[in-house]
Each structure stands twice: as structure tokens, then as C-alpha cells.
Amino acid sequence: SLMMKPQVVFVLGGPGAGKGTQCTKIVENYSYTHLSAGDLLRAERAREGSQFGQLIASYIKDGKIVPVEITIDLLRKAMEEMMKKDEKMFRFLIDGFPRNEDNLQGWNRVMDGKADVKFVLFFDCAIEVCIDRCLERGKSSGRTDDNRESLEKRIQTYLQSTRPIIEQYEKLGKVRTVDASRSVDEVFAGVKAILDREG
Ligand code: UP5
Ligand code: MG
């Protein structure tokens, strides 16, 4: 059958900016499939027999970015699975990726011509707000990186490696920014305005 090329929105923003929260709301209101690169990596970390479990665990705890060969494989497989299940499922929110130059190059190597990146949805959130949200969540999340030490490293990685990726897309006119420091509903109103315009 004729396979439609998947449409991709990259969802970026600092740790705790609300990427996951907003993606969940988008899925409830629009026809998108949500794929969180972080969730896929955490699932791979937990998978029995994974050869990458240890590596992923240490990268996540250190707030470092996992080598793209691992992440891109998980993303590609997840996209293929979704599209097999339902051929209408060809619009993806890819949450938390690409985070650095290595990620971007890996995506281009593997996915160029196979998927169209429509734009980057950027959740712009004050760092102090990001930290507060993650520490608050850390009381119950069980995430190995929701503690002050890991969080400092995650913020550093975000500022040093991920912001430049967002800036690259900005130069291409491909960034749609939402002020993410506000309440969940206010942020979602901003998201809606963008998605209704972009179709
Ligand atoms: N919350 C959300 N929105 C709120 C609002 N508007 N007002 C008040 N509270 C709000 O939200 C975080 C917390 O804040 C929650 O408790 C929520 O209720 C509350 P969430 O929606 O989870 O924010 P999100 O941006 O998704 O935060 P997350 O912690 O998931 O972001 P990260 O980017 O840090 O984490 P991710 O899972 O993407 O990555 C984790 C690690 O995996 C990375 O550090 C890295 O080591 C690794 N990784 C890679 O190596 N490569 C990848 O491609 C992806 C990840
Ligand atoms: Mg998340």
C-alpha cells in the first residue's frame, strides 16, 4: 500500500518545562501520536536483556545525552510500530529530541527523506521554574534524575547542547514558542493557538 510520509513536530524545552504534560493534552485534542525519547530510553533501560541498559542508566543520572544510535533506533521502531497499527497514525510529536548536534545528525542520517519535520514546538520556561517543578515531582516520581545533583547537570546540558539546536531551527523560521512558565491550561491555550494555525 502507499505509505504516507510521517509528519513530525519536535517538542523541546528544558527539564520540567512541561513537554510531556502538554503532549498528553495535545493527543487528547488533536490527531498526533506522542513519542517521548526519554520514556523510550527509560523503557529500554528497564528491558530485560538490553545491551544498553547500564549505559542509558548512567547517562540519564548524569544528565548526559545518550549516543544517537541508540535513541534513533528506538524512535524509528516506535514510529514504524504505530504506523503498522494504524495507517492514519502518521503525525508524531517527538518529545525531548533532538537535544544536541549528534542527535540532529543521527536523525538526518536515518530519517532524512523518510519523515517531514514540520516545526519545533518550544516550551520556553524559566530555569528556576524548571528546577522547582522537577524537584517537586522528584518527591514521588522515582526518576533517578529528579534530584538537585542530576538536575544541575540536566540544566547545563540543556543550555550548552540543546539551546543551540533550537537556535538553528529558529534561523530556519521553524520554531513555534510557547511561554511555558504559566499554568498548564494557559500553556495549552498557547499550544492550541499554534496547532490551529499550523493545521
Ligand atoms: N508541570 C508541568 N507543566 C506545569 C505547569 N504549567 N505548571 C505547573 N506544573 C507543571 O512536567 C514536569 C513536572 O512539572 C510534572 O510534575 C508536571 O506535573 C509539572 P513534564 O510535563 O514531565 O515536563 P517535561 O518537560 O516532560 O520534563 P522532563 O523531566 O521529562 O524533561 P527532560 O527533558 O529533562 O526529560 P526527558 O525524559 O526528555 O529526558 C531525560 C533524560 O534522558 C535526559 O536528561 C537524557 O539523559 C536522556 N535523553 C537522551 O539522552 N536523549 C534523548 O533524546 C532524550 C532523553
Ligand atoms: Mg518528559
Q: What gyration radius follows from the Cα positions, in whole Å?
A: 16 Å
| CATH fold category name | Rossmann fold
Question: How widely separated are the two ends?
Answer: 25 Å
pLDDT below 50 for ≥5 consecutive residues: which ranges? none
Order of secondary-structure elements? EHEHHHEHEHHEH
Entry summary:
With 199 residues, the chain is of the alpha/beta class.
Question: Could you walk me through the main structural features you see in this protein, from its secondary elements to its overall organization?
Answer:
The chain has 199 residues and is of the alpha/beta class. It has one domain (7-193): 3-Layer(aba) Sandwich (Rossmann fold), CATH 3.40.50. It contains 8 helices and 5 strands, in the order E-H-E-H-H-H-E-H-E-H-H-E-H. The chain has helices spanning 19-29, 37-46, 53-61, 68-85, 101-111, 127-141, 148-171, 184-198; strands at 7-13, 33-36, 91-95, 116-124, 175-179. It has a 5-stranded parallel sheet, sandwiched between helices. Helix 1 packs across helix 8 (184-198) and helix 2 (37-46) crosses helix 3 (53-61). The radius of gyration is 16 Å and the shape is globular. It starts with 6 loop residues before the first strand and ends with a helix. The model has no long low-confidence stretch (mean pLDDT 96). It binds P1-(adenosine-5'-P5-(uridine-5')pentaphosphate (UP5) and magnesium ion.
